[in-house]
Amino acid sequence: MSQATDPVANLQTLIRCPSVTPQEGGALHALASMLAPMGFEVERMTFTEHGTPDIENLYARIGDGGPHLMFAGHTDVVPVGNEDAWTHAPFGADIVDGVMYGRGAVDMKGGIACFVAAVARHIEKHGAPAGSLSFLITGDEEGPAINGTAKLLQWAADKGERWDACILGEPTNPDTLGDMAKIGRRGSLTGVVTVIGTQGHVAYPHLADNPLRGMTQIAAALFDPPLDAGSDDFQPSNLEITTIDTGNTATNVIPARASAAFNIRFSDHWTVDSLKAEIERRIHAAAEAHGLRPDRASPIRFELEWKSPPSAVFLTRDDTLVSVVRSSIEAVTGRELELSTSGGTSDARYIKDYCPVVEFGLVGKTMHMVDECVDVADLETLTTIYERIIGDWFASRT
Fold first, then answer.
1. Do the beta carbons of residue 134 and residue 68 sit within 8 Å?
2. How confident is the model at residue 151 (pLDDT cuts 50, 70, 90)?
3. Residue 243 half-sphere exposure, CB side, CA atoms within 13 Å?
């Protein structure tokens, strides 16, 4: 058996590459070295955009026909923080009492290591798949996410690549391997509303207009009533105001402007456009109903800026893909899998525009933490699950 069939060795190799965003750190080179001997055609590309760091990415494919299954993920990791706080070297990949320590162990070099091992085992047992397998791996998931998956997908599509399904190897399990897979994600929409007042001395309020008075009215309108009660597939939409700022450092000055940033994680009751329209309606209504002072009838003056790019809500409706993933996980783990749309956004928000996508990876308890780690036994279990998904998915398409 080749070394690539061993997820533990694969992961140790990847962790020992210090690929903190935006540095490649040798991780993509190591991955290419695992895939090329299996027969994958490996391509490396760097994407650039003004004001953002250049990012190296990788695309590898074996096979030249359909059906085509893609595995997607990222080799970049978040910074280690205070290295002295780590019990084990963050890029050492030490194994102690059946646990491997290192940045990226679960988020998400572990998922990549296991899928490589699963593919290697499948090829050793059955030969190349009856179709095509590809790896779409970015180095920009933990960063601005500008020069990564979105551009990599477009690059591949422009050269004629088409996919029938995707497994995204993010850590999806809250507590135990086999707990949860993600079959969709809520949408995400961010905006900044700025109320315009008149600066003045706090002792002479009649000469000024305090924008924070108007901001409280607008904030109340954004929070209430609730946007929706959720649906069968999604939690209720939720709006949170994340900052309120006047830029004012003086305690005796009424500020001229007050800005509030907010983010909405929204259900399938809304599209990006319909949700924008609802938020604009609420703000306009609050502005018309309330002035900045009770003795002044003029409406609140405001500006609204939408931050881009928003993320649309989506749900994977490919019954074959979802069924294969579910049955494979339950057969290997003996656990009843929860199909969820909870959590934040992921690169699935880009992939879903090209093919159906399901997310499943390791247990995410320690991701981004000091002493990020993974049970070595989970690496073998996840590899077995991925190997079964590969075999069963291709069998379902013939």
1. yes
2. very high
3. 10
Query: Does residue 114 have a pLDDT over 50?
Result: yes
When pLDDT is cut at 50, 70 and 90, the band that residue 2 belongs to is low
228 in active site: no
Rama region for 258: left / alpha / beta (φ>0; ψ in -120 to 50; rest): beta
Pick the catalytic residue from 24, 56, 76, 372: 76
Nearest C-alpha neighbor of 199 from the set 256, 116, 146, 147? 256
Dist. CA 22–CA 117, nearest whole Å: 26
- Residue 386 token pair: 């991925």
How far is C-alpha 244 from the geometric centre of its chain's CA atoms? 26
Q: How far apart are the first and last CA of the chain?
A: 28
Mind spelling out the 3-state secondary structure of 67-81?
Answer: CEEEEEEECCECCCC
* 198: number of Cβ within 10 Å: 15
The model's confidence at residue 309, banded by pLDDT at 50, 70 and 90, is confident
Q: For residue 138, with 0-12 CB atoms within 10 Å meaning exposed, 13-18 middle and 19 or more buried, which class applies?
A: buried
How many whole angstroms separate alpha carbon 358 and alpha carbon 356?
7
Per annotation, catalytic residue among 107, 140, 141, 164: 141
Which pTM value belongs to this model?
0.90
141 carries an active-site annotation: yes
